[in-house]
UniProtKB/TrEMBL annotation:
It comes from the Archaea. Keywords: Cell membrane, Membrane, Transmembrane, Transmembrane helix. This is Dolichol-P-glucose synthetase. It comes from Methanosarcina horonobensis HB-1 = JCM 15518. Its main location: membrane. PANTHER family: UPF0104 MEMBRANE PROTEIN MJ1595 (PTHR39087:SF2).
């Protein structure tokens, strides 16, 4: 019942955001607004279809008996350690938002917000659950939508820069890739490194980027379009947030926290791999499991990440030398364990928020 309530609230917030958006730009969004709603509905249908299709393909590659045997042989000690690492990552995420919001919201409140936000974001399709963070901040702490969007975007940019740097570092420590995977891995490393550089430039020279984007929109005569104006205003809010963080001297602190968050999460994956008695090194796990993160930023996601998570995991771990069956089995088991973790913490966080 609690999850249904949260889902309903996020859907209402979706509708509220779109309604206010249309009312601000009545001239440019009649037909476009209808197209946007059709796009969202179609995306949900594709999400469900992708979930069943990908799961069907994945399950056809393994024996269910082997999957059950893998689950039965899990080392419970590693599961407990993994849960503590998972909680630690939430505390660190809460601390990062605490700093991004100028310490105006307590770390305790933000920890519980992160618990709910991560559960909803992990379950709902197409990462629409990101809105839960903005909705909760607005409902319980009277923070504006702009502030919620800006702090969330800053956190996501820091995440991707950190992931890209860690992925690049891990590629220097992992050798002897299969020949077909070796060429792919270096293309991915190059792409992520370039993207990380671009995001760092955006952090430190966002004004220049905005001026360039506005000049392009003006040349293409898109500067008066309602949708472009809306996203331009949000981009200005995000760049202003970057500027405030940079001027306050918090950037290094935030980078350190972001780095610690992801090292903790990669150690979690390493711990869960050890619980399955798979003996591979930490940097191999870091490199391989990053493909799950890359899959998560695709526009189409399986419900609860099912299908897309396992595909990303299988690509990464087959690439470093695991058999196809072992890679798929371990991916399914680790995914299920992760779901148990975030559902437990999500309901705990939800109960806390209900009492406020």
């Amino acid at each position: 019942m609690e999850l249904i309530y949260i889902r309903r609230k996020i859907d209402i917030y979706h509708f509220d955001c779109y309604s206010r958006f249309y009312s601000q730009y009545p001239s440019g969004l009649g037909e476009n607004g209808q197209l946007l709603m059709k796009y969202i509905t179609g995306k949900k249908f594709i999400t469900v279809l992708a979930t069943f299709l990908l799961l069907g393909i994945i399950l056809s590659q393994i024996r269910i008996e082997d999957l059950i045997a893998t689950i039965k042989n899990i080392d419970k000690t590693y599961l407990v350690l993994g849960f503590f690492l998972y909680v630690l990552s939430y505390l660190l995420r809460g601390l990062r938002f605490h700093i991004l919001l100028d310490k105006k919201i307590s770390l305790t409140d933000l920890f519980h917000i992160v618990c709910v936000h991560n559960m909803v974001n992990s379950i709902l399709p197409a990462r629409s659950g990101e809105l839960s963070y903005i909705y909760i901040l607005k409902k319980y702490h009277d923070k504006s939508t702009g502030e919620g969007v800006a702090t969330l975007m800053v956190a996501r940019v820091l995440d991707f820069i950190t992931i890209s740097l860690l992925f690049f570092m891990s590629s220097l420590f992992v050798h002897d890739f299969p020949e077909t995977f070796s060429s792919i891995i270096w293309l991915v490393v190059l792409f992520t490194a370039l993207l990380a550089v671009f995001l760092i430039i955006l952090l430190y020279a966002g004004d220049i980027f905005l001026k360039f984007a506005n000049a392009v929109f003006k040349t293409l005569k898109l500067n008066k379009h309602g949708l472009v104006n809306f996203f331009s205003r949000k981009a200005i809010e995000i760049v202003d947030s970057f500027k405030n963080i940079k001027n306050s001297g918090k950037m290094i602190e935030l980078f350190i926290i972001s780095f610690t968050i992801w090292i903790t999460l990669y150690f979690l994956n390493y711990t869960l791999i050890k619980s399955l008695s798979i003996n591979i090194g930490f940097f191999e796990v870091l490199l391989a499991s990053t493909f799950v993160v890359f899959m998560s930023i695709l526009p189409i996601q399986g419900m609860g990440g099912f299908g897309t998570y396992e595909v990303g995991w299988a690509i990464g771990f087959v690439g470093i030398g695991l058999s196809k069956e072992l890679a798929i089995n371990s991916g399914i088991v680790v995914h299920i364990i992760g779901i148990v973790y975030y559902v437990l913490l999500g309901f705990y966080g939800y109960q806390y928020l209900c009492k406020k």
